[in-house]
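Thread: Modeling a multi-component assembly for a lab meeting

Hi all, long-time lurker, first post. My supervisor asked me to bring a structural picture of a complex we are working on to next week's group meeting, and I have zero experience with this. I have the sequence lines for every component (650 residues in total). Could someone generate the structure of the whole assembly? Inputs are pasted exactly as I received them:
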Amino acid sequence: MKILITGGAGFLGQRLARKLLEQGRLALGESREPITQIDLLDVVQTDAINDTRVRSVKGDVADPAVLESLIGTDTAAVFHLAAIVSGQAEADFDLGMRINLDASRALLETCRLRGHRPRVVFTSSVAVYGGALPDLVRDDTALNPQSSYGTQKAIAELLLADYTRRGFVDGRALRLPTISVRPGRPNAAASSFASGIIREPLNGEPAVCPVGADTRLWLLSPRRAVQALIAGCELDARALADRRPVNLPGVSVTVAEMAQALREIAGDAVADRISWKADPKVEAIVGSWPGGWDTARAARLGLEGDNGFADIIRAYIGDDLRGTV
Amino acid sequence: MKILITGGAGFLGQRLARKLLEQGRLALGESREPITQIDLLDVVQTDAINDTRVRSVKGDVADPAVLESLIGTDTAAVFHLAAIVSGQAEADFDLGMRINLDASRALLETCRLRGHRPRVVFTSSVAVYGGALPDLVRDDTALNPQSSYGTQKAIAELLLADYTRRGFVDGRALRLPTISVRPGRPNAAASSFASGIIREPLNGEPAVCPVGADTRLWLLSPRRAVQALIAGCELDARALADRRPVNLPGVSVTVAEMAQALREIAGDAVADRISWKADPKVEAIVGSWPGGWDTARAARLGLEGDNGFADIIRAYIGDDLRGTV
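Re: Modeling a multi-component assembly
Sure thing. I ran the full set together rather than chain by chain. Output:
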């Protein structure tokens, strides 16, 4: 079977591809055929994965011709990870609309055109929630995004649900908590600091936290995120019934608690590399997100999160620092 | 001031225009200037309203050039009523997407281009709700549309909210209950019968009810709908805070109760013109809608509904049958 990953050169796309290659198969209903090809579509070419099954394609995810060249009736699953992150979508409205909305719609349209009803796994976000929120967001809490990014994600969720209802695709929208600890460099996501304040100190660099110490975040490790993407793709459609968005389980933690966990694992010298300087733009976006949500449905669906933030730090040390600090 | 009404040749657009002409002014914040021009954009030309302030424009509401020719910096308010109704949007997916989604977005983009932040009143619908619903839908109940029409309306609501948050427009999305009793002929709306089973018998014609007698509807008269559109446009933005969609008040009634109210007002001979024949397609769409919702917020905002279904029938007799049956 063929698989397409959009945003395939990104860190999550790369990890997902590696995990898929490692397991070699995807269980889709009765079928559990070997994965013969994974296309990684992104704005840049990548040769990071050395495997004959992988093809890196440089192209515009919002261009229907690109999508039509990559999605055939033999494409069993599409993981749609390509996105403009929250801070950038807020700064460049048109770019966010083009990638987060138009590309998602073009992707669904291409699948509809092919007519074979592939699985489409769409990564949505905590940012679809906002405004006055209950302490614990439930699956049936209204979406009220307070950023263009959250709005675009919410719209793509609605499209995915309707394309699924009409039988054009078999879609699953997985609402990801903030991913932490991401490897690599800071990016334009408003939540970039949620990785930076752990990653940079562990790598001997200073980090600035732009939100208050009592800001509550809802976090998931890259390791668990990749597991959830694959499990979400393999889920029986009947288990999802008429609600295609699924809130993935996360760890609810304040920024102060994150710094304290780092202190306990890596010591004072490392944790003291964090300094605090409020950025109202980041606080406005991140502060509108819920600090946690009811995970009962995800648990029923067999989707697992991390066991506390210390585990998340250890997963980063294990996966990205080869186990050493 | 200039006003644009899309779907301006439709019955609601026509009534809205007449009411606006009658009151002569619109209270927008400090300003209460006279209405100098009302443009009625629709797929057909209409000369039903004889008033020098009214201009009927035949054009495609999804064509940005048409919108740019009609929306200027002197356009104080846009009432965006143009839509493909639920049954038709379900039958013709592409047409529904074009008019209910693309046109709404093009309209918002045109306003953004002008840069003067006009008021935009968007008519949304009970159809944005669906799936497993609480007995009484609240303002913060999640949208879970089970029709393409409801999906497109929900998406346009989200766009309107984000364009408002970013300061491109001052938007208000009014979720209309099913409008009953509509004058004229049946249309492709799944809810068309909610007017037909009252209107046709009162006009001496038979009517078929395609849903079960215990189906619960949520209804608003055209008279109250027009009042709510104008009141919604005039509302102070601060009263809406960060939630631009407003659930308008309706009357919760079963189809059997509607027939009984008709019997009491117009007699057995009239009510006996209703026959019952289930249509699964209509039942699937209408059955997914809530039969009522919490109207506390609308009441706080000063938006009023009808006082029971008998009042709705009497409003129809008064407004459309010149008071006589």
